[in-house]
Batch of 2 targets.
Target 1
Amino acid sequence: TWKWVVGPMFLYLCERLVRFWRSQQKVVITKVVIHPFKTIELQMMKKGFKMEVGQYIFVKCPAVSKLEWHPFTLTSAPEEDYFSIHVRIVGDWTEGLFNACGCDKQEFQEAWKMPKIAVDGPFGTASEDVFSYEIVMLVGAGIGVTPFASVLKSVWYKYCHDATNLKLKKIYFYWLCRDTHAFEWFADLLQSLEAQMQERNNAEFLSYNIYLTGWDESQATHFAVHHEEEKDVITGLKQKTLYGRPNWENEFKTIAGQHPGSRIGVFLCGPEGLADTLNKQSISNSEADPRGVHFIFNKENF
């Protein structure tokens, strides 16, 4: 028995030593951005840090807790000279980080006053394979949109420089949110990407649908009154916000009809229930013929 135990234990210890060494490397917080509804963005730099789209890191702030590590999806793109995370203030640890970064103070905070941060990672996820497909469906539920922020930023940078080698030709993006608060920090990115695609006469590249799932009568009435305006009153985007939940069967059938004979990557960051639904739709809408349309499902659950 000891022969079978010693090998895995040795590998585990080696892995822990590597992670400990990486966590001791110096991390510099270069910028803290306060977004509406107590969401903060930490922009950081670390020597030798390399990332891919959709990856995540573990973060520790000794000023808040000397032992706690928390996972956060990277919201920056590999093309940027920093890496960033978005933290929504929803508990004791995130509240402590919010205060440690001086976000509760009105005056400007000097860089040397920023707390020490330890970072372990990055670690890979299914979202890294986005650029392996010509057609993709990106589905984010609530804060599950964060890995796709990295993807869309990377697409924006590629189009700003040279998109001739980009295999990805079409993105169908779905974002499901319970309330309007979650739109605030992400709408700017979509607006930039929307404008970039229009300038390059490629407005069809990104098709996005934003669903507000936790709505009431007053919101529905407001929506009906302003529906004819050029831009959405909630997000400022040309695509109008939709109410309720998507009819996934119709969405899959529509996309399959528009791209016959294609391999379509379906990427989800959301709850297990939604993953089951999308997995079943991916299977039922894929054709038995190898030359037909096929949906390849990839997921990250939280």
Target 2
Amino acid sequence: KMAAGEAAGRYRSTMSKSKDPSGLLISVIRTLSTSDDVEDRETEKGRLEEAYEKCDRDLDELIVQHYTELTTAIRTYQSITERITNSRNKIKQVKENLLSCKMLLHCKRDELRKLWIEGIEHKHVLNLLDEIENIKQVPQKLEQCMASKHYLNATDMLVSAVDSLEGPLLQVEGLSDLRLELHSKKMNMHLVLIDELHRHLYIKSTNRVGQRSKEKGRISSLVKDASPVPLMDVTNLSTPRKFLETSQFGTPGSSSMRETSLLEIKEDMELDPEENSTVFMGVLIKGLAKLKKIPETVKAIQDRLEQELKQIVKRSTTQVADNGYQRGENLSQENQPR
């Protein structure tokens, strides 16, 4: 009985000091193993049962006392559990939606790239159609420019049209006739420019000299002087070489300045292109350069030089004879055969 009492005391001290159920179980097993009497064991069993009953009563009392808090805690726990479960399901759904969106975005990106490429193609086609529409009007505009002698604008228009027809528009079968026509005009364009250049080099310039000689002849006829009358004074005439040597083209021999000035030559569509003969010849040279016919131009000038100079002499002789006819009669009457 004393051993049982000691065991019960150890049990109570263990219950009071420790809340670990494993320690309590070990203490009970040790008490039962050290006890040799069946009655002590039964007593210990009774005490354990009484202790458990007391714990149940205490638990029931605590449940009754804290029923509201316990119910609220259980409901809160259930709500939290349900929210966690719902959140997990939603996260799973969100992941699935994100994967689906990722696939759709890949598809949309491919579609957008395809649409972007189609947009560029359509824009290019529209530009080609606009270019074709403009090129169809080139023959009419070219004829107008040639009629008004705006050769630089005509040359730019013709070269650009031929480059387009033989470049981006080469595969357009409907433009084959127009391509042949404009190509043929481009091949023969330099002949017209060379003829105009020769006309201004040899005919227009000598016409100015003839006009000046007429004026001087009229003045000299009013002054009766036995001194010889100069036939021509060409020191102040504007010739192509003097044009290149003027101040606006820099010093003579400065090829870079000459080239720059040639590039700066522009054609005014509202003015008479032949009003300034020197600028007009610069326009012709620039047009021939755009046609890449400068070697042919130089060769043509060399080939026709002798013929043109003979024509100048012939025209000048005729002009001198006509202008001096009346003056010659007056001189013969004054016994001045010269």
